[in-house]
Amino acid sequence: MTSTLPTRSLRTGTALTELGFGAAQLGNLFRETTDEEARDAVTAAWDGGLRYFDTAPHYGLGLSEQRLGRALAARPRDRLALSSKVGRLLVESPGTADRLDDDGFVVPAATRRVWDFSRDGILRSVEQSLARLGTDWLDIAYLHDPDDHWESASTTGIDALVELREQGVVGAIGAGMNQSAMLAEFVRRTDVDVVMVAGRFTLLDGAALGGLLPAAQERGVGVVAAAVYNSGLLSSEQVDPNAHFDYGSAPAEVIERAQRIADVCRAHGVSLPAAAVQYPLRHPAVVSVVTGMRTAAHVRSTLERYRADIPEALWEELDAAGLAPDPAMAATQR
User: Fold this and answer.
1) Which of 78, 210, 219, 299 has the fewest Cβ atoms nearer than 10 Å?
2) The one catalytic residue among 59, 142, 229, 306
3) Domain boundaries, the chain
């Protein structure tokens, strides 16, 4: 029987493996992925001990949810954690079905995304996600990128998720964003159990250390760290000066800092991507690191990074050099 990776639990009791499977690429993010590749990636993740899988309607206009649901159909539902997102409702769009989606996914635009954080929108979104995933409940439902929708997301959006949590349709509720400031407000002002922060708690971007993580630690809210490679700059042992950072071209000073971090890693016999994966897990508020995985090979390489032996001296040197503050130390000094 396959042994699972170590888990960390939310205050609701939901257990997440420390490494989670990000399924955006199963929705043909930037390029096509075959059904076979998607199935093999999920199989490799399961065989490697991953039990937390994250998706969203936004990913491939429902394709990611459909593929993930099919790939997990034969797995015991009570032995895995499944999260999806709400706020971008998918509605039929026959007038655009003859063209491709224009939001980064190589899929027909037979449906379109509509921002909707109303009670009805949330309920419909969850109902549709459950159908695509072939499950009766979500372990986590996140408000998806509510940056421009604070008022509705923090009221009707959260209230609807609380209602679903009380009904047992959703196990835990939260928000997922590419910023940390508003997530900290969700933690302080609403009844969220978990937040997903993308790209703002990494070796190169410690924004979440300043407000979100202390607030989450104080209130017992779990944090899932995503986009730990910062759009690719931290994904290779050798830093590529042409790699992207934060969804755009990397500034020269950021490239230089990444190269210095890579040099420190190399001196300790550690790869830069391995340090990127393990770095957020040093903070006690973090319950999982979710990375995007397209193929079985991606899964296996990510597992190697997660399992790599990293000496404490590496984190100490990065902290002392001012290259990346040690999250473990930051958590004790708040």
Assistant:
1) 78
2) 59
3) 15-229+283-294
